[in-house]
Specification:
With 70 residues, the protein is mainly beta. The longest helix is centred in the first third of the chain and has 10 residues. It starts with a helix and ends in a 6-residue tail after the last strand.
Length: 70
Amino acid sequence: MLSILKNYVTSWQTEELAFSYELNCSVTPAGLVLTLHQSQTSFSLAITIQPSPDSLRISSFTLEEESHLG
């Protein structure tokens, strides 16, 4: 699943976007954390996912920004 998402993000045509993005993944005790980072503004969207037999459950959703922007 992660490789499909990373390939999707990297396939975005950068000349058609105002910003560039990077997708990262980490494993924590709370679950799998996918982080979409917007490079120019340093905004990040983090989604914690817990797999279950029939679906994926989003257990948290966080929007973060660099302190110099606020």
